[in-house]
Amino acid sequence: MSQHGVGPRAVTRSVAFLTAGVLAVPALAGCGSEDPAGKPLAAPDIQPAGRDRIADGGTLRWAVDSVPDTLNTFQSDADATTTRVAQAVLPSMFRMNASGRPERNPAYLESAEVVETEPKQVVLYKLNQQAVWSDGREIGAADFAAQWRALSGKDTAYWTARNAGYDRIQKIERGDNALEVKVTFSRPYADWRSLFSPLYPKDVMGTPDSFNDGARKKLKVTAGPFSVKEVDREDDEITLARNPRWWGKPTKLSEIVLRTVPRDKRAAELAAGTLDVAEIDPTAARRITVAARPRSSSSPLMGPGADRSAADALRSWAVANGTDEDAADEETVARKKLRKAVTKYTRQQQALRGFEVRKSLEPAYTQLALNGAEGPLADERVRRAVARALDRKELAEAVLRPLGLPAVPVGSHLALSGQAAYADNSGALGGQDTKEAQALLADAGWVRGGPVKEREKKKEGEKAAGAEGEKAGSAKEDSDDDGTYVVGEDNKAHGRQDPADHLAHDGKQYQQPAQGGAPGAYAPKGTAAPANRGAAPLAKNGKALTLRFVLPSGPGSQTLRTVADRISRMLEHVGIGTDISKVSDESYFKDHIASGQYDLALYSWPATAFPATDARPVYAKPVPAADGSLNVEQNYTRVGTDQVDQLFDEAVSTLDEGESRSLIRKADSRIWAAAGSIPLFQRPQLIAARKNLVNTGAFGFGTPVYEDMGFLKKGAKPAAGPSAKGSAAR
């Protein structure tokens, strides 16, 4: 699965992938007796085991995407590895449970509650009396106060990425004793549990210099089950070691080594014995699953030469033993290379038998983003038509069903199934309806068979552009994996494979739209095609309705690109063409999504337990900046309304949790109605892990408990629980 995602809590908050108010919004599901939040669609799959069954010691080698540029999660260049390190070495007052809801972390907190609401909101934290920093100092009010001052936004010398919540604090003081921290807010703040997770020591937060630079390359003082032993940027590794001052349950592992390994190299590294756990793609998951099965004639063929038929093998033998000496020599070399590759692959498969695939659904969802700033999608009717053309259930099934995961379309922009704020509000926009989509387009002035002038001019420009233009507009097969191609302006296949063939088969083939004519009927070359306005592209003012669909071109984005192909064909069915452009992974987000150089795009947003805080900048109405530019914050679709902004403001300012959830659901209904982004499916989470590694794997919503990770004692069995043995990527 593509890794193109955006973390609202990892990037700048002051800163992803007709008005909506006139649309009818259905009654909220929360009005009934049944909880609309439901349950998580998939449970964690971590091979649970009691601590008494886990060996003491050992090193866990864990693949990551990179050694981060900073170990400070509150800086703009923090990444997923920054978060992983922080979870293992720093305090968090609250952590996420298996349903994606915040729960008190007993290692640090005895209790935390709102003790006053008038005249000001006051939260009283009672700390675990054993909680100390690795230098022996007690965790206390001074650390809370230093973090508040650094993140309040009042001192611009601190290079902070986000200030939300901290900017509402009025003061922090010690309570009745050193274990109590009293936080007084200047304005009510519903998401107060989001604060101080993680909590850095005052040594890091105390001055701008220590904040900006002190925690980028190292963390001298920590307070988790592990501490940072070494950051090796030459070997791209971070080593975490047991914290000798840890007061909680004894840490089972001696060390955790976070190793940078590209995703397409991870299966080979697992087989080589240099990794114990790694997030993997569906192809690697299938390799591991097949390796675990007994060898039989029914096992699917994989690896080098798997696509060679008996006829191919016979032909190869004939050439290698033929009279053409040059051809025979060339074929003999090729056969030796193939045998060597097969031998290597077979050894790797044997080694992979020691691993299994653990799977769940990632706390993130993939969406189709529609750029409403300009062009056809500035018209809400066209955006709604795009949404009504999509069969979201089919898209979810195409990605998730082959992996054995629940294929349920996401029904909310602001939460996922099981989270407190979740409710399926997609009814505010409506489901797939071809006739309704076509009616919306007609109402917006787009008609079939109208004159089209612009595309011919563009084609001339592409031709004049030489090789680059040929790359962009060519239908040659050798440009299939990059450049640009157009779907919807004609019904030619352009040499492209049906996108359904790229996915693991889900039991039904995607049906192409009818192309007219009887199979096998041909006319002499040059015969004019019959008039067929129904098959012509939609046009308006001499321009065809063609949308720029920008996609990443990296090897990890194949599933994303295949989903885009299916979407393109769904849009083609209602008369909307797509101009698909594949760009480098490095430029995809920065140069296209964030800058607004796209009409359609696919990227992911992570789930959050605090949507009133975290999701507001993602859906806030863009406002003009002083220099005349548009301040979009994180709203890369450029679609927003004053009503949605108001609902977010109300939700974050009420201390009634039920009322806050209701306001969030109302906001989500109006976001659906505006049709700026269409949630599609929750992302699959596939983890390869050694079979004797326990309490580790596909965590789903839950925050990992690092002190419980480890390897089983010899002869010990894991506890009964969810397992992915032999079930992923069939």
From TrEMBL:
Record field: compositional bias (Low complexity): 509-535
Cleavable signal peptide: 1-29
UniProt keyword Signal, yes or no: yes
Bias type Basic and acidic residues, positions: 451-477, 489-508
Family matches, as CDD domains: PBP2_Lpqw (cd08501)
Stretches the record annotates as Disordered: 451-535
Alphabetized UniProt keyword annotations: Signal
InterPro entries cross-referenced by the UniProt entry: SBP_5 (IPR039424), SBP_5_dom (IPR000914)
Superkingdom, natural source: Bacteria
Domain annotation Solute-binding protein family: ranges: 115-293, 347-455
Protein name: ABC transporter family substrate-binding protein
Source species of the chain: Streptomyces coeruleorubidus
